[in-house]
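Interim report, section 4.2 (structural modelling).
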Amino acid sequence: MEQYEHTCMIRGDGGRAIRGILDRICDKWTMLIVATLDEGRMRFTHLHQHIPGISQRMLTLTLRNLERDGLVSRTAYAEVPPRVEYALTDRGKSLIPPALALARWAIEHSNDIQASRDTYDTQDG
Amino acid sequence: MEQYEHTCMIRGDGGRAIRGILDRICDKWTMLIVATLDEGRMRFTHLHQHIPGISQRMLTLTLRNLERDGLVSRTAYAEVPPRVEYALTDRGKSLIPPALALARWAIEHSNDIQASRDTYDTQDG
DNA sequence: GAGGCTACTTACGGTTCGTAACCATCGGGA
DNA sequence: TCCCGATGGTTACGAACCGTAAGTAGCCTC
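Predicted structure of the assembly:
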């Protein structure tokens, strides 16, 4: 129970604060953007090309949220054509180890999970 | 780039497999359910009471997905009133360390992130 | 025989997401 | 002069997802 107090129910707000953070961190694209930016500062188009499946819209929205949370910095250069660079802040970099831990878990268990899904889906539906 | 290959772009499917796993793990409730079940096997109602804010509907749906992925086992007893117990499988337990790492990060940075959000929101909107 | 316990399921309205198209700016070429 | 392309978005719209609240099934108690 003690560990759990530190992960979910912390400090009597019913875990609302923590859930607010986890909801943002654990959405569809945040992890991938953070992991990609770990390589260094990057332009919008470069991010778009390197994160398979993301749309411009979701890239924009997720980057804005990351900027709002102080995890990513946005630098716009007054050039033509425009240039905007994104980079992890120190706080953003501190997210990398736990994010990678989770990603590694996903990779390690990806085959087994897929197999479980297939079994589950073919049983009856 | 090498680390990234192992987190996002792995094995030429454009990262689709990994994203499929991460999308499921990183949804709104999965982490909290897994963290809660770390305490031991639990009944539906107990889970419902201990995860602040979750609805019966989302608890049912998320548990079903966890079962499908082989992370949670479901045991129904033919009693009246009905009794259904959920527990982490070994695979589910293996998710605990990375999940806790992420939760700890969220807790450590929760205040700073909230402050950043407030600043961002009051700047102009 | 009305109501409660448990574990769901369903209906429905609102939010979020994905796709695709559009926009603004400026330089360069015809 | 006019159109094109590059870049970094924004907008429109239909589909998918989520939360709220109510309903369901079986048996027990009052």
